[in-house]
Amino acid sequence: MLLTTHPLKKLAKLALVTIFSLLTGWHATSQATPEYDPLYDKERIIFFQVVNVSADDVLNLRKFPNYRSRKAGQIPANQECVAYLNKIRQKRYRKYSRKWVKVTHKGVQGWANLRYLRQTEWGCGTFYQIVNVPDHLNLRQSPDHRSQKVGQIPAEEEECLIALDEVEVPNKKWVLLQYAGVKGWVNSRYLKKIDVDECDV
Fold first, then answer.
1. Model pTM score
2. Which pLDDT tens digit goes with each residue over 150-166?
3. CATH number of 38-119: 3.90.550.10, 2.30.30.40, 2.60.40.1940, 2.60.120.1440?
4. How far apart are CA 99 and CA 108, in angstroms?
C-alpha cells in the first residue's frame, strides 16, 4: 500500500516554513547597523558648494522644502562654504523623490534641493574665540541684539568656534556660531579671529 501525505498537511508545513523565513529575515534586518549619514547628525558641522547651476544663474532658497514655495533668497553659482543648518526633508514630486536641506548664506536661511549642493571636502569658515565677556555670551535667533536668546557660551570657554555664516548690519557684524549643539548669532565685538593652525580641529 502506498503512503501519501494529506494536502492540508503539506500546506501547513509550507506555511510554517514561510513564516519562519519571514521572521528570520526581519530579525536580520532589524539587527543590521544602519548606514551612517552625516546629514542626519543634528550636531555635525557641514558645508556645501553650489553645483549643477549655470555660471550666469543662481540657486534659489525656498521658505519651505518645495519647488512651489516662495523664494527666501539666492546663492550664486559655484558658491563655496554654504553652511548646513542640520535640517533635512525627503519630498516626492511626481515620480521623483528629492532631499531638501536647510542652509544659510549671508544671513538668509532657506531650503535648497540637495541635487544642487555637494558637501565640501576642504576646510571652510573662519575660527573665533570669545573675548570681552564677563559672564556669558548670548546666542540669538537672528542678527539683532533684541532677538530671542537661544543659548549661551560661558565666558571661560577657550575652544575655537567656527563661523557658519556672517552678515553685516548697520555698524555691526554678526556671526553665526554653534555651541553645545545650538546655533545662534553673536555680535563680532565679542569675538577674536583665530588662525586655524592655533585650533585643535
1. 0.77
2. 999 999 998 999 999 99
3. 2.30.30.40
4. 20
